[in-house]
Known about the structure:
Structural class: mainly alpha
Number of strands: 3
Radius of gyration: 17 Å
Strand content: 5-15%
Amino acid sequence: SELLLLLSLINAQNIPRDLLDKYKGPLIVANFIYHLNKYSLIMNTSLSPFNSMSSLSLHHSTQDISFPYLVQQLALNKGNLALDAIANTLDDYMDEAIEQEDFPKMRIMVAHLEKFLEHSELLTDLSKGLLKSKLGSLYYFINDDRARKTLTESLKILRIQNLENLSFEDK
């Protein structure tokens, strides 16, 4: 259910296999992909023509059906541990891409982070701030004009979050 939740929260196209491996491990992911393939829920599992990254794509209808179902069944709300784990995985994955200057991975992940951040009602302010900062960094590295605005928004969120934490600790 956690892998399906991850797939429901990000863009349905060009999902990097190594992102899924980072989240749950290659053996679990291989079994998961086998079953998705078995029931024709994956449009393709192939190598992207632009780089050597293995990726998969879901039918949009699979996402449209699975997301509300998982929100209800898993009783998802702000600060849920599964959502935090996914946010942390995305954050770590982007750190590696930026550190390695892997521009194809960065370009692919822009759409995934944008889609993930659309679910802001389920994300903590800290997760939103951190992931917006990663998205702003990606925009910067791929020379997108939205970099400054996104980084400024993330800084504002993180400053507020920091002030709230300081105030709480002072009480």
